[in-house]
Amino acid sequence: MPDRTASATMIWPSAAPTPPPRFVEGFDPFVAYARDAGADPAALAADPLALWDFVAAHAELLEEPATAEAAARFLGNTIAVVHPAATWRMTSEPEVGTSVMSVPVTGLLRTMVEHPEHREPFRQMLASWPQADLDDQEIAALAHEEVEVDLVTPPVPFVRPEIALPEFLDDDGRIIPYGSRWGGGSPSEDAYSRVSHLERFAPVPAVVDALVAHLETWYAVAVDSRTDESGSHIVQLRPATGAPITITSGATGEIVTIEAGALFRETVPGCTCDACDETAESVADQLEETVLAIAAGGLREVFPVGARRWLHTRILTPAGTGRSSSGEPSGPSLAAGLLGAEEVLRGLPDGWWPAWSLRPQPA
């Protein structure tokens, strides 16, 4: 452990937040325990795997709360020694980590005793952690990069068809105010596992149809529609230029999947549970924003990013707003192969798909 020295602290008024600690005190009982057991605390502090083996061989140290807590603090400091970017954060259980991953030290201490088979995954995690931090920095740089993209939009904006729904009642006969049912507060715990009135999404397929008709009117795009054996409605839009789009609406209409470009995939709503409180209007908002942005030339796909070979996507809307996401590529789009997608995206300027070509309009 780093040497501890006496210090005095002067507090000056400042708006700057206090940085999280790199190390914490309170590990002396474990240091004494280790010495009594014939181990060198300094050697344990420099080698997390040696510390793992010591703890695993001395399960009784967890029986004394003070020693166990000291061991957890020693363990967290050891992780901070081998991974200099790691800091402490005091949550419900003290953790040591970075923005990429964080280790609950009390739980890890128990794992060392109860699950020796996790030793190798722990070693691999420590070894891969620095690269994961570098990958995260690369993703963050992409997400915050300022860009200028020339978006192409039709002269007439899309007009959503009217969404009219009956009132939905709860078990007590009260109207459920979907979209604002939690009043800015937190949902009840059971709401996360409860799904009610999926028929509130019934207008969504009509919005999809209107959106497709709008795109076909104003852009040079071929449209193929079909219904599969499950009853899902699939619309494929193949533009003369730009990213192709496939929109799949579930048989009952509450789930819509958008696949575009090489690897982009988005499902709306992301969740239909009562806690998320999605409505046909919120689904239509996201659906329109995504599809219209892609047609206008506002889709960016960067792959692979970092050693983990993640996909970074960005949506830029004609209104100037946007959002980005990163993670492992997923979904049926993988059937074409990641290598093929990588080759396609390599040919795009910084991963930006061009706008769809506007269809010539009669004079």
Number of strands: 11
Strand order of the largest sheet: 4-5-6-7-8
Describe the largest sheet.
5 strands, antiparallel
Q: List segments where confidence is low: pLDDT < 50 over at least 5 consecutive residues.
A: 1-12
Total count of helical runs of at least 4 residues:
9
Beta-strand residue fraction = 15-25%
- Helix and strand sequence: HHHHEEEHHHEEEEEHEEEH
Average per-residue pLDDT, rounded, comes to: 87
**Whole-Å distance between the termini?**
79 Å
List keywords for this structure.
single chain; 363 residues; alpha+beta; five-stranded antiparallel beta sheet; three-stranded antiparallel beta sheet; 9 helices; 11 strands; disordered N terminus
Topology record:
Elements (H helix, E strand, L loop, with lengths): L27 H9 L4 H6 L1 H10 L7 H18 L4 E4 L3 E4 L4 E3 H10 L4 H26 L59 H15 L2 E7 L5 E7 L5 E5 L6 E5 L3 E5 L11 H17 L2 E7 L4 E7 L5 E6 L10 H9 L17
Antiparallel strand pairs: 1-2, 2-3, 4-5, 5-6, 6-7, 7-8, 9-10, 10-11
Helix pairs in contact: 1-4, 3-5, 4-5, 7-8
